[in-house]
């Protein structure tokens, strides 16, 4: 689950993916399409990039997105059940050689830039593996537009072109092999284009916004750039057939994990972001703690800073706690990857504490030995049903 399921969060692994970025925006010719059946509806109208009704909180607006995704999953389940009664036709229109090549390229990228998560995906069914790799690569490419080595050259117009390309992708008109892998994926799973558009909206925020007045604003940003990834991933990860949880609760958990991971990124990268003139911490909460932007740019750890950071870390952990409620509701083959992601990312908060809250000049990270030690723990939890997991955590 980016629970969910977070495949990747922006600001993480900011290595160069230049070779993955589009060198032009010319769509593939019709003769190069992987499948003539890659045609999709354009979807419902997009949500406004801002909350249209001031009387609604950002959390309420995002909750409506969650409900919409749950409805799509519910409808997909109904249609799938009906399709079981139909004869299976041999799909001869798809160029499987080219499609397999596309998914293999996605696999290579995920294996390179998300090693631990990739290891967890190896327990998934081949179909789920390929789909989650395709989503992972699209998210990384999108993030690279504003956080990659060529970010200085990116303009709002470039992101508009990227969004146009996304629309074409959802219409079955992929531009390259990576697009083709995602185009095929969204034809098989109930994934809404709005989630992808919202992620692009988060990239647009990074081009024009470097301060967040309160947590409401920051929450929206975290939803855009990371919560969306969790919501994209739920249909692919799948919900366990024996799960008694509501679909909405699983999506809520997925959203929570995405928010938690992004908050962790922000807390880890305070010093690095400050160098670029960005401060993602809520301005009103900084002021309440007796801190200002100047304190962050000076990068000195004080008692005020320690106290402030304790509150921020506590909030991030609350989101992780909420996320845990949904991980064990996922399909059994998908749980290990999500548990590994959750446990390892949460340990970054422990590392910040171990560094005496110095996230100005010390980068909090999880040592390789800790990562390896976490994998069997994640695997054990993946095998537990919710009731057993609750007893395990309580020490019964």
Report on this structure.
The chain is mainly α. 64% of the residues lie in helices and 0% in strands. It is built from 16 helices and no strands. It has helices at residues 58-83, 96-113, 115-121, 126-147, 156-170, 177-188, 193-208, 215-237, 247-268, 270-275, 283-288, 293-298, 303-327, 332-354, 368-383, 386-394. Helix 4 (126-147) crosses helix 6 (177-188). The chain is globular and about 60 Å long. It starts with 57 loop residues before the first helix and ends with a helix. Residues 1-55 and 390-396 have low confidence and may be disordered.
> How much helix, percentage-wise, in residues?
55-70%
SSE arrangement, N to C: HHHHHHHHHHHHHHHH
Counting helices, strands and paired strands, the structural category is mainly alpha
Total count of strands: 0
The 3D shape can be described as: globular
- Describe the largest sheet: none
Low-confidence stretches: 1-55, 390-396
User: What's the Cα radius of gyration?
Assistant: 21 Å
Distance between the termini: 26 Å
Strand content: under 5%
Please tell me the overall pLDDT: 83
Number of continuous helical runs: 16
